[in-house]
Amino acid sequence: MTSTARRLPRFAAALTEEQTLIAESARDFATRRLAPGAAERDHSGRYPLEQLGELAELGLLAMKVPTSEGGAGTDNVGYVLAMQAIAEACASTAVVLASSNLTSKILGDHASREQKDRWLRPYAEGKLGPASFALSEPGCGSDASALTTSARADGDQWVLDGSKMWITSGAHAGLHLVFARTDGPGKEGISAFVVERGAPGLVIGKEEDKMGQRASGTVALSFDGCRIAASNLVGRRGAGYPIALSALGAGRVGIAALSLGLGEAALALGAAYAEERKLFGKSLSDFQNTQFVLADCRTELDAAWLLTLRAARLLDEGDKAASETSMAKLFTTEAVGRVVDRMVQVHGGYGYSRDYAIERIYRDARITRIYEGTNEIQRLVIARGFLSGA
Ligand SMILES: Cc1cc2nc3c(=O)[nH]c(=O)nc-3n(C[C@H](O)[C@H](O)[C@H](O)COP(=O)(O)OP(=O)(O)OC[C@H]3O[C@@H](n4cnc5c(N)ncnc54)[C@H](O)[C@@H]3O)c2cc1C
């Protein structure tokens, strides 16, 4: 990798010692333990199970859970830096961390004392494996408030029926945060539950054969009269929808960071290739066209960093930052889409070969414009924000 290619942007504000530490330990782990197997995991679709213990030890499964609950107590800026570093090496592992951290953040914010002792601490200590966030269904993704998975009270149990779709880590999670309808239609009728691995009536579907992020263990989950204890209800009955939304702003910033990891990896590969590749008696990087392409990519990635860090900082200050988190996700994922496409072009025919990492990165980047709220939904949030003057 060339020094030019590897240059990260100068941050607008200084990082704290904790933020630097979590970023450095994530980068060190990613370089040693994730980068070497990333191509093989992409080919085989093998979930990064053997790395999970170490990820838990580093606190990366429960980054935003307070240290008093066994988590890493990281703020959103630290989370962004760690996520970017992990995704630069392996986007599949990064999205596993994204959904695990989304679920653990929600449990940290909304679970009862008894629930935290039962699940959160053992989870943060790595005893339960990853966690899944199960909101989407075969019939609804963007329109999540239309979900139809039902939960009915039966004595001291809840009985769940229905199915969830596209659940990251669904086959491996020790606990699933499941959103189901307990009452009437609309947002008010939805409640949140923890369904533990092996719950009777929980059926794990086959792994999806995906375009990218192929090792993230995406499955459908079916609930066939699935019985869980009454005490598995998280938060108030009927509060499931706001609970789901409560962590999505931070989740979006996490996906922006994941996307930045892919963008930085792509630019580094493209710049290095352009310096090595000789044609017409000079290096590809000597052509002004190549330099302009690299300059555009660097500029767009710097802009994406700034939007992402702004959103993370606002969240850390206690601001909901609905528009800013959506802008970070929208701009970054679309900028990275352009960067990975241009870097495939810089590689010429080699960019189309599975032997070159840029081909995997190109596929891995595509989904970031779809999950954690599609970019069309982000545009709706942003427009709503400024039209209402919020
Ligand atoms: C690899 C992968 C991993 C995922 N992981 C998870 C997970 O762990 N947990 C989970 O719950 N979900 C997960 N998802 C689901 C993901 O969040 C949804 O796919 C996404 O929200 C879009 O929903 P949908 O697929 O139903 O598309 P739809 O909602 O049907 O959207 C189809 C198209 O219509 C557009 N559209 C929708 N509404 C509007 C509107 N109002 N105005 C304009 N355009 C609109 C969309 O932007 C999109 O282009 C994952 C998906 C994938 C592919």
CATH class of the largest domain: Mainly Alpha
Large-scale geometry: globular
- Portion in beta strands: 5-15%
Rg over CA atoms, rounded to whole Å, is 21 Å
Poorly predicted regions: 1-6
- The tally of helices reads 13
- What order do the strands of the largest sheet run in, or round the barrel if closed? 1-4-5-8
Total E-strand runs: 10
The CATH architecture of the largest domain is Up-down Bundle
CATH topology of the largest domain: Butyryl-CoA Dehydrogenase, subunit A, domain 3
Please state the structural category.
alpha+beta
- Which ligands accompany this protein? flavin-adenine dinucleotide
Helical residue percent?
40-55%
Query: Average pLDDT value?
Result: 95
Characterize the largest beta sheet: strand count, sense, and whether it forms a barrel: 4 strands, mixed
How does this structure look, described?
With 390 residues, the protein is α+β, with helices and mostly antiparallel strands. It folds into 3 domains: 3-130, Butyryl-Coa Dehydrogenase, subunit A, domain 1, CATH 1.10.540.10; 132-239, Butyryl-CoA Dehydrogenase, subunit A, domain 2, CATH 2.40.110.10; 244-387, Butyryl-CoA Dehydrogenase, subunit A, domain 3 (Up-down Bundle), CATH 1.20.140.10. Helices cover 51% and strands 14% of the residues. It is built from 13 helices and 10 strands. The chain has helices at residues 3-6, 17-34, 38-44, 49-57, 76-89, 91-110, 113-124, 240-246, 248-276, 288-316, 322-346, 357-366, 375-387, and strands spanning 131-134, 150-154, 157-167, 175-181, 190-196, 202-204, 219-229, 233-234, 278-279, 282-283. A hairpin with a 2-residue loop joins strand 9 and strand 10. The protein is globular and about 80 Å long. Mean pLDDT is 95; it is low at 1-6. The protein binds flavin-adenine dinucleotide. Flavin-adenine dinucleotide binds at residues 99, 133-136, 140-142, 166-168, 210, 213, 218, 367, 370-371, 374, 376-377, 380.
